[in-house]
Write a sequence for this structure.
């Protein structure tokens, strides 16, 4: 039996009229992945760690991913570098992950070499490296789950 991950997402909110809404509206709120790797990182303030790079033998990462989740006990910044094998032009972007609110991706596809006015004019490529930086003023514990 191989490792797997199942994500069940539910969001409930109340609108201005007091009506309670529940998402998802679909009957199948599930994502599955195999080859799952879950790692905890304790990141000191003002420090950063490489958490995924398929070319770094020391990280023992999968070559690609079909699922990524990052959960932290406080605010951290996740840096993504897209330009698989230096093929089309490097694109770097970040996303802030806040305490206990998971950040998830369903694929490692992303646009590289974007145009001046929009990212979609670039070339579809792959994320090639993920780094997490902590600038919160305190040590943070971060869980990273990657599945193929």
């Amino acid at each position: 039996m191989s490792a797997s991950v199942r994500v069940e997402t539910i969001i409930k909110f109340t609108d201005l009229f007091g009506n309670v809404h529940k998402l998802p509206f679909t009957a199948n709120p599930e994502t599955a992945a195999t080859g799952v790797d879950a790692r905890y990182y304790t990141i000191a303030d003002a420090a950063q760690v490489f958490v995924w790079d398929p070319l770094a033998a020391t990280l023992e990462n999968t070559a690609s991913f079909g699922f990524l989740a990052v959960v932290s006990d406080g605010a951290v910044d996740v840096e993504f570098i897209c330009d698989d094998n230096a093929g089309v032009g490097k694109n770097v972007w970040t996303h802030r992950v806040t305490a206990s609110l998971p950040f998830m991706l369903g694929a490692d596809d992303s646009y590289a070499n974007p145009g001046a006015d929009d990212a979609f004019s670039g070339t579809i490529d792959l994320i090639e490296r993920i780094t997490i930086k902590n600038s919160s003023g305190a040590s943070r514990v971060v869980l990273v789950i990657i599945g193929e």
About this structure: The chain has no helices and 13 strands. The first strand starts at residue 4 and ends at 8. The CA atoms of residues 78 and 95 lie 5 Å apart.
